[in-house]
Design brief:
Length: 344
Amino acid sequence: MKKRDYYFDNAKFILIFLVVFGHLLRAFIEDNEVFFALYKAIYTFHMPAFILVSGFFAKGFNEKGYIKKIAKKLILPYIIFQVIYSIYYFYLYQKQTLVIDPFNPHWSLWFLVSMFFWNLLMIPFSKLKASVAIPLALTAGLLIGYVDWVSNYLSLSRTFVFFPLFLAGYYLKKEHFYSLFTIPKRIIALVAFIVLFAGFYFYPDMQYQWLLGSKPYEAMGAASLLAMFKRLGIYILSFVMVMSFFAFVPRGQYFFTTLGKRTLYVYLLHGFLVKLLRETELISYFDKTERIVLLAGVSLIIVLALSSKLITAFTQPLIELSNTRMKKLFSRLSGGYRVTEERN
């Protein structure tokens, strides 16, 4: 039996931790320069890396029933959680009316919609050579910023902006990632992270919205020709930082490795906890720079809890439209109960 390669499981666990950590940091970026610089540094690479990995594992575009399969995997959970989050926000923020809009994804749910479109786009793009496909995708990502009505609606802006990373992941091989595991390349990667943070800290004027890919250029006050080149610079920066991140991902098996296979659960569920925490006075305790380790600890606890067997078993019917984890959980519990009875 072929030994499992743990590298990408480890990468996904670290990235989902950064997703949660970044969302918690968001509450402090207006008043804390260190947090703001760290926030922008994380957003430079964490979702781009997630998207690139998703593209790396994308396959089956031309199989019969493929569209139906990915619609069930991505769109049905999206609709379910769009409704749940709408109701949750209605009560959490004490809104006057309940609005359920399936075309404007709540918060992090954009990823499911964009993932669906990226898979659809791969049907024609997978037939092209990388030398043609990637420049074409980059051109679309650069030009889409000039279309004012393309924003959060159906996650169209992010779909076009981040598709080049998904496409790049599709064309990459394992050898490209493993070639990063050299001391000189890791030194360069470390220097890149230090320079990135220092740059954001000492030159804080860059709008973080450029890293989100969710708005047209005009909404960010930069609808000139230069806006396209600024986004191109961000593409280059993001790709460099994504590769720098992958240079440090461990290849061995650790306590968190298996949890890397359950990142979708954390991604869809952590919003309930993060949004709730933001509305409590407890969040103000973490506003001091020296408490950043505690904030990271809270993020880790959230990730570990939401990727646990218990939580994934109970939420699988909503996320995967299946109850296999629940059956396994009850099977183990009942099995342990029978063993205890027999011993007694």
